[in-house]
């Protein structure tokens, strides 16, 4: 995604520069040679004039308003399935410049339970998605499939055995739980009865300017339990809508997924 962003910015700047130079310099020279302003316009200028507004609009839309992403893995099941196409609000946590992700206008900060897209510190060229569990200053613990925040355990209710679909069928039989965090609830998956100690167990204190994120598919998620806290500077935005689902293994378009809000 980062290379697409670089390409979009480069093409927008290049087409805008060509169009501007022609308007300020070359078009006037052609006019002085006896033609009308803009007559005998070179093909490259015609393309630049046509495509610059479109490229600029796309750049502004995906950089500052909403950006589409596709879910490639099972780490956020059952909330998000493989093949979901989602929209991410790009201004929820401040306006950021494309490519370097530098925040230029502060608007808001993540809340516990938000589903966020970010670039992990150990894979800065990739876009990942997880749920915010810990805020700056929190002490997070994960033991016996239970999340604790500042010593208080989340409440859980058993939703029975989960039935996967398409490329997520490997999770069929996992335990579906409703996790109750302060002010918000959502579903998670746990594989119970494993014969070995959960490598994701531990306790962590979230540093200022960082967040602790976890996937809803607790036994199939590479998250803060393994690579540490997420720096605020790596946030990309807040996921809010599933606008399409395509999973060939599940028969193609999942119409029941379209239009679902992400909570």
Short account of what is shown:
With 263 residues, the protein is of the alpha+beta class. 22% of the residues lie in helices and 32% in strands.
Task: Name the descriptors.
single chain, 263 residues, alpha+beta, elongated, transmembrane, protease
Describe the structure.
The protein has 263 residues and is α+β, with helices and mostly antiparallel strands. The chain has 2 domains: 2-64; 66-257, Umud Fragment, subunit A, CATH 2.10.109.10. Helix content is 22%, strand content 32%. The protein contains 3 helices and 17 strands. The chain has helices spanning 2-32, 43-64, 224-227; strands at 66-70, 84-89, 95-96, 103-105, 115-118, 128-134, 139-143, 146-149, 152-153, 155-161, 175-181, 184-190, 202-205, 210-214, 230-231, 235-247, 252-253. The strands form 4 sheets. Strands 1, 2, 5, 6, 14, 15, 16 and 17 form an 8-stranded antiparallel β-sheet that branches. Helix 1 (2-32) packs antiparallel against helix 2 (43-64). The longest helix has 31 residues, at 2-32. The mean pLDDT is 92.
């Amino acid at each position: 995604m980062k290379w697409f962003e670089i390409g979009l910015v480069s093409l927008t700047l290049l087409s805008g520069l060509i169009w501007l130079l022609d308007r300020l310099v070359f078009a006037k020279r052609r006019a002085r040679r006896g033609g009308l302003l803009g007559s005998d316009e070179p093909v490259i200028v015609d393309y630049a004039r046509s495509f610059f507004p479109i490229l600029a609009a796309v750049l502004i839309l995906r950089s500052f308003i909403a950006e589409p992403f596709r879910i490639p893995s099972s780490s956020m099941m059952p909330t998000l399935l493989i093949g979901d196409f989602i929209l991410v609000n790009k201004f929820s946590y401040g306006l950021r410049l494309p490519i370097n992700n530098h925040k230029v206008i502060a608007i808001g900060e993540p809340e516990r339970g938000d589903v966020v897209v970010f670039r992990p510190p150990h894979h800065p060229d990739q876009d990942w998605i997880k749920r915010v569990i810990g805020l700056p200053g929190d002490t997070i613990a994960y033991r016996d499939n239970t999340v604790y925040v500042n010593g208080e355990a989340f409440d859980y209710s058993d939703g029975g055995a989960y039935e996967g679909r398409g490329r997520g069928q490997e999770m069929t039989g996992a335990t579906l739980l409703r996790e109750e965090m302060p002010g918000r609830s959502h579903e998670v998956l746990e594989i119970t009865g494993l014969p070995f100690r959960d490598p994701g167990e531990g306790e962590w204190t979230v540093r200022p300017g960082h967040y602790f994120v976890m996937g809803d598919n607790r036994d199939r998620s590479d998250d803060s339990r393994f690579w540490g806290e997420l720096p605020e500077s790596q946030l990309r935005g807040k996921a809010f809508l599933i606008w399409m689902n395509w999973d060939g293994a599940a028969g193609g378009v999942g119409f029941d997924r379209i239009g679902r809000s992400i909570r």
